[in-house]
Amino acid sequence: MAASTAARVQLVAGARPNYMKIAPIYWAIAEHARGSLDVELLHTGQHYDASMSDAFFRELHLPEPEVNLRVGSGSHAVQTARIMAAYEEVLLERRPDVVIVVGDVNSTVACALVATKIAYPETARRERPLVAHVEAGLRSRDRSMPEEVNRVVTDAISDRLFITCRDAEANLVTEGIERSRISFVGNPMIDSLHRCLGEAERSGLLEELGVEPGRFALCTLHRPSNVDRPAVLETILDALSEAAAEFPLLLPLHPRTRQRIESFGLRERIAFLSRPVRQAPRRGLIGLEPLSYLEMLKAMQSSRAVFTDSGGIQEETTALGIPCVTLRKNTERPITISEGTNVLAGVTRAGILDGFAEAERKSRAGARVPELWDGHAGRRIVEVLSRLTEVR
Ligand code: UD1
Fold it and tell me: Which of 2, 117, 167, 322 has the most CB atoms less than 10 A away?
């Protein structure tokens, strides 16, 4: 049998926010590049709960990954090291021509480090894979955030940097990265949003919870800086309760946040519901298991405002025109503030309550969707990859 001449692209995912960034690249290869590119999925297993992983693959119409490293949780050093050791073996065996890492999680930096330093055996078609980073160049300038370290390192070593907004280019150039390595392709996370919104609209989540569009709010919290210290977490929950005096505020909980709420004795601040839900309270904080991707889209699109410390949700709310109150002191996604519906509120009571009012004002005044957040980023990425793999 003749060897395939198509370049083999390996898409790496490890944690929940990665899946909606790899999906558009997978779809674009399947729909536009059959013959020139082959694609396979690799999951590191950083996130492993069904609610943090499997459900997302199903809803994004992704097949089960060809490889799962099953590394699980651990300290940063242990998790990163486990991914690196396991990934090296897989890479030597499978020898993809291109490795694509996305976002800023530990899996991103771990796999980028291995793939840029690997030496394939002489019989392979190339010495090592071309390594591409999707969502490059975002900077919070806060090195106490593990994600910021992951971003800086991944960008410094990747061969190709795909950026979602023009300010990312300036960040990269300031760090000495040549413009020739950078491609502005738009935001693949918004491709997934466009593609899945129709299906999400049919979700029965709102009926199940008995909430009406525009008459509830939503909050996600998982950053260690917000949930690992009792005083900070308590202040945030108190401010959210105050904001939600007149309407229900849904709180789908990351496993880590739920564990912290329990261990800090804050459980009684929240009405925890398990599904199927019979009757949800009409106001205050409502704790839920993590939502699936389609449910999360439905909840975001229908909510009065979203409170969050996530990165991706700042972008999704801007694309949807929904007010977003970011519970952080900085953001690596300033375009969602300068053009979108996002307000940086910090984590004090006054900051959160003022931020809520300001975000609502902002979205009423009309925000805009950033350039190239148009649902076609995956296709642009694949066009660049097709060109790069032709000439190398
Ligand atoms: C990771 C990313 C973060 C991203 C977030 C999205 C890093 C450094 N952080 O944070 O950037 O915003 O994912 O969710 O990569 N756990 C489970 N089940 C799981 C996964 C995790 O119970 O499937 C619990 C474990 O107690 C684990 C903890 O969550 O120790 C933290 O998981 P980890 O993958 O280390 O980081 P996240 O906080 O999820």
Answer: 322
